[in-house]
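Translate structure to sequence.
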């Protein structure tokens, strides 16, 4: 066998290097796809392999038991039932002698009953103008008569709204629950038309919620895909500590975001890295730190030791920033000490971003952080400003589940109904308001009305720009006017 020459050896090694590079790239793409698949909410909803030795299920003993609680005794007892002592012992057959009485309580649902109500509407004419005039009772939901004289009542419609829009049941299953639980038969088409009427009654309230979002000190937006008539649309959500607005629109651009938020929004915008949000030039931006940390963790898992230096460095800086925020909120650091720690973190991030990186992944991360640089640390300057967009993520998560159950809406009108009623339901949850009275008030109103949602029962703290030096710094790093609200 002829001995291999140097040139042949070099050529062979180069081919081997190319083969290993291609294999390395293939494995990297495979790992990235596996990481992405772990975040997709597809059956069977398991992201990792089961634990080899899982902990025993149920409550733990000792200090790890958790919060101890029990069902309270009912405030009112409507019925007392005696469970009499048997004459004979069920075990040995001997006679039993009563020694006392102990109490047990149940909280039960009463047997459902459907009410049939007839409204006798008195009709007449005005003696002055001659127009037809009719009476209206406060429990009526509509003035329709004739072929549409038989309708669902406000309590039934409010429950159907909660089941379909709040819980996410399709119209068919909502109708099934109404029939099984209450013996109330209703068609899917009838429910669809009824909920559209509810949305029309709630339209002024929805517009008031949009105005409240636009005037909020801090807003957290997000978006996810949604189908309307089989076509890809987008469900937008804009959430503040007091209210939430949903809007299903055919695009994912600035025009759609500004349709709800307003193009001149000048409050705090806590958002992810989607470039559209940067177009709100008057806002004070806070990028989601959780998204950046997740991206760093994925890069560390995919890249090698050398290429993982940037994500490790960024991860350490962001985690340090979150710990500094917690110390500030616990009043363990303030004033000059806080400013020094904050400045050191900013200097560390600037030094990391000034370096040059050879791998494409590190270059993409560095370029993204350079674009987002001014939006990384505002939460350290503004007490009460959230560091992540968790609020919008939590608001949009139920809609992701609903999307998997019945896909979306068939028409743009249905999509608008979805957004209006979802906004009302989610805002009531945030403000700890019972939704049934709110829906019944809307339904029994002769005309669409705007309900007052500006005075929540529990008002959460609002972000603020304290100290003049912080205000000046935020104005300097963002190039905009910081508005105190």
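Result:
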């Amino acid at each position: 066998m002829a001995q291999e020459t140097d040139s042949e050896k070099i050529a062979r090694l180069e081919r081997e290097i190319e083969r290993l590079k291609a294999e390395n790239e293939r494995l990297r793409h495979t790992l990235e796809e596996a990481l992405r698949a772990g975040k997709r909410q597809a059956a069977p909803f398991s992201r990792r392999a089961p634990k080899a030795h899982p902990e025993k299920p149920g409550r733990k003993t000792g200090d790890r038991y958790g919060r101890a609680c029990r069902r309270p005794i009912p405030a009112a007892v409507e019925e007392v039932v005696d469970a009499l002592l048997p004459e004979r012992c069920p075990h040995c057959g001997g006679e039993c002698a009563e020694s006392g009485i102990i109490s047990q309580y149940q909280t039960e649902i009463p047997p459902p009953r459907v009410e049939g109500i007839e409204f006798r509407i008195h009709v007449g004419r005005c003696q002055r103008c001659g127009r037809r005039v009719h009476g209206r009772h406060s429990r009526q939901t509509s003035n329709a008569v004739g072929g549409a004289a038989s309708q669902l009542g406000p309590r039934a419609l409010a429950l159907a709204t909660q089941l379909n829009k709040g819980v996410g049941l399709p119209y068919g299953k909502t109708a099934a629950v109404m029939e099984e639980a209450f013996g109330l038969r209703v068609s899917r088409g009838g429910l669809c038309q009824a909920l559209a009427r509810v949305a029309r009654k709630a339209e002024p309230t929805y517009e008031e919620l949009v105005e409240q979002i636009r005037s909020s000190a801090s807003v957290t937006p997000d978006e996810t895909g949604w189908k309307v008539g089989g076509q890809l649309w987008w469900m937008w959500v804009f959430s503040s500590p007091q209210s939430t607005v949903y809007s299903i629109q055919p695009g994912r651009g600035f025009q759609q975001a500004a349709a709800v938020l307003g193009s001149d929004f000048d409050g705090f915008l806590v958002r992810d890295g989607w470039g559209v949000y940067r177009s709100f030039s008057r806002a004070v931006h806070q990028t989601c730190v959780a998204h950046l940390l997740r991206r760093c963790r994925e890069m560390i898992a995919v890249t090698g030791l050398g290429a993982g230096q940037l994500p490790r460095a960024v991860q350490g800086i962001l985690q340090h920033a979150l710990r500094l925020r917690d110390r500030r909120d616990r009043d363990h650091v303030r004033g000059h000490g806080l400013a020094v720690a904050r400045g050191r973190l900013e200097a560390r991030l600037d030094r990391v971003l000034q370096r040059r990186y050879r791998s494409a992944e590190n270059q993409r991360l560095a370029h993204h952080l350079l674009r987002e640089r001014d939006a990384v640390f505002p939460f350290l300057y503004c007490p009460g400003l959230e560091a992540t967009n968790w609020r919008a993520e939590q608001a949009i998560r139920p809609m992701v589940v609903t999307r998997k159950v019945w896909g979306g809406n068939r028409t743009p009108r249905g999509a608008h109904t979805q957004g209006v009623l979802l906004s009302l339901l989610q805002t009531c949850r945030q403000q700890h308001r019972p939704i049934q009275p709110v829906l019944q008030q809307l339904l029994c109103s002769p005309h669409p009305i705007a309900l007052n949602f500006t005075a929540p029962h529990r008002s959460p703290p609002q972000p603020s720009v304290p100290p003049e030096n912080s205000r000046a710094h935020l104005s300097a790093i963002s190039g905009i006017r910081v508005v105190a609200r």
